[in-house]
Design a protein that fits this description.
39% of the residues lie in helices and 16% in strands. It is α/β, with parallel strands linked by helices and 231 residues long. It has 2 domains: 4-153, D-Maltodextrin-Binding Protein, domain 2; 170-230, no CATH class. The longest helix has 18 residues, at 44-61. The chain is globular and about 65 Å long.
Amino acid sequence: MWIRLFVLMTVLMASYSATAQSWSEIEREARGQTVYFYAWGGSPAINQYIDRWAQIASERHQINVEHVKVDDISMVIQGIQTAQRVGASDQGSVDLLWINGENFARMKRDGLLGEPFVAGLPSAEHINLDDPTIATDFSVPTDGLEAPWGRAQLVLMHDQARRPNPPRSMQALLQYVQTNPGRITYPEPPNFHGTTFLKQVLLETTPDPQWLSEPYAAERFQAATEPMWAL
């Protein structure tokens, strides 16, 4: 049982267009500058990954990437929103931000993002920008305002010695829960893994999965989620 997710990062700049300059000009102007990358710092492995590429950016391009480790990215967004409200958007310290779909939808709605930039990245030629998982985030069109950062899968493991034939569908899992009360739990949302587990349940139980790829509609929400809550 698994679910594919996209974790994305967005460039926050007041007035930048990837098509306004050639990439060589951008590289030349970037040399010697410091980029503040605000990202969740709770994973040593991810922190090491960021540190490694920060070192490469320094060696190859003379750019200093500062990983600003945060626990709750929504607090950073709140700071950006406050700066915009008082007319100090160009005085902020956030250059790059690692966000999820919920926060992207919020930032786009509130006008906290810069100009579209993804198509101007050299790596864009290796990305299928028409892929629905790239072109939308939380069912919101990305419009070139955020670049793919990574893909994660939720994988449920089991002890084969104890459970050689584990449930392989939501209906089978429900039957197992009913015959083994108290044996199945999941983290309470908004915990990431708990939320992701519920997304998987929703994908398997909703009457029409296409609904989940469309913008939120209050009148459809109950019909889309009712089978999940019935479990």
